[in-house]
Amino acid sequence: MLLYHVAGAILLFRYVFRDPKVDVRLLALGAVLPNLIDKPLGTVLWPDYFGADRLFGHSLLFPTAIMGFALLVTRRGRRRRGIMAVAIGAMLHLLLDGMWTSTSTFLWPLFGVAFEAGRADYWGNLGAIFTPTAIVQELAGLAYVVYLYRSRGLSDPDARRAVLATGRLPV
Prior knowledge:
Blueprint: H1 2-16, H2 24-45, H3 47-50, H4 61-73, H5 78-97, H6 103-106, H7 126-129, H8 132-151, H9 157-166
């Protein structure tokens, strides 16, 4: 669910933080990073070992570690803001996935190192993943992307190039 996580993270960030200086490229990276880590690990590399598709990246420890890294290693400035955008994107991913409902994964490793059993045969059952709820979520993400495209004047090629170069949405 790419559009749901990316658009949802941008929407929530813009509503909660109201920071026009955020690099939406890094925020979007953070919003998909838990899936980029966990899906290959749990479903391709070690499906027999983990037996789940939500692992370390879907734990609260993951974005907290990224934030801790940003605070310990960087000084104020663009680099710290970028790393924090990745961490906030990952945190918003957990919120959008409703990870608080599976406490053994969300609070990993507080309740043990095992993860809740999930869809280990993720790639073999892609048709089963596209439930009506998932389709509605993706359509909502698409609707918000279209809204941003139109309201921020991204039909102009120069505006699109500026967003790709700076990561900032036009005001």
